[in-house]
Structures are given as structure tokens and as C-alpha cells.
Amino acid sequence: MADVASSDTYARIYAAVRRVPHGRVATYGQIAKLVGVGARQVGYALHACTDPRVPWQRVINAKGEVSARPDADHQRVRLLEEGVELDAKGRVDLAKYRWKPRSK
DNA sequence: CCCATGACTGATT
DNA sequence: TAATCAGCCATGG
Questions:
Q1: How many degrees, rounded to 5, is the angle at CA A101 between CA A53 and CA A27?
Q2: Dist. CA A93–CA A95, nearest whole Å
Q3: Disulfide engineering: A83 pairs with which of A23, A58, A71, A78, CB 3.0-4.6 Å?
Q4: A8-95 is classed in which CATH architecture?
Q5: pTM for the whole structure
């Protein structure tokens, strides 16, 4: 599918997101550093991302919360299904579930 | 090419 | 822990 990305930047971001293993989460900042772009660009790219192959649901902000999305509620459930515990405030314990990339 | 926007981050208060 | 400010860089008009 050539509609994965219109720019190499997006492709790198999607590739990094796909590296996130099941039952684990990553922050925008992590992805941003992996691809070598700003954190906002990651969110911007994921916003434009419509590819279900990309587990963009595992990408959350530095607070451990799911970002402002209409499907935020749906995403939380999905994380729980993957084995990720959520705080009473709906936040993930980054100290435990934060994915540790090696290519950094 | 310039300006405004944005699924963010980190430091400071 | 929460709120505020400035920096970050790609995209679109």
C-alpha cells in the first residue's frame, strides 16, 4: 500500500510504532527521538495515520494518558486487553509498561 | 516563502 | 500532582 505515508518522516514514525511489542506502551517523545523528529510531529503523523497495521494505540503522551482522541475510551479498553494496567485516573504506569527501545 | 496549527515534552512554579 | 511557558518541527493554506 502506497498510502502508508506521503513523506519519509511518517514512514519512520509508523515503523517505530510498529516496533512496540504487545502489552507495552511508548510515549511520543520516545518515538520522536527514534525517528529524529519533534514530539509533535509524531502526534501529527499518527493523527493522519489510518493504517490499522500500526498499533498507534500504544503510543501515549508523557503523562501516561491516552491523548485527546474521539476513540480514547476505546483505546483504554484495548490496552487493558493487552495486559496494560490503568491507574484509577486512566493512566498507565510508564515505570513498568514503558517500552525500552535499543536503537537509541 | 511566510504564517498558523497541532493525538507533545520538559522544566519551573 | 496540577498548571503554565516556551521549544520543537512537519504540514497545509
A1: 65
A2: 5
A3: A23
A4: Orthogonal Bundle (1.10)
A5: 0.89
Phi, psi of A47 (to 5 degrees): -65, -35
Length A16 CA → B4 C1' (Å): 28
pLDDT tens for chain A, residues 1 to 104: 434 455 789 999 999 999 999 999 999 999 999 999 999 999 999 998 888 899 999 999 999 999 988 888 888 999 999 999 998 888 999 999 999 887 65
Residue A40 CA distance to nucleotide B4 C1' (Å)? 15
Please identify which residue in the block is written with the cell numbers 504506569. Answer: A93
CB-strand contact A44/B, under 7 Å = yes
Q: Which nucleotides along chain B are within 7 A of a protein C-beta?
A: 6-10
Q: Is the CB of A39 under 7 A from strand B?
A: yes
* A9 CB inside 7 Å of strand B: no
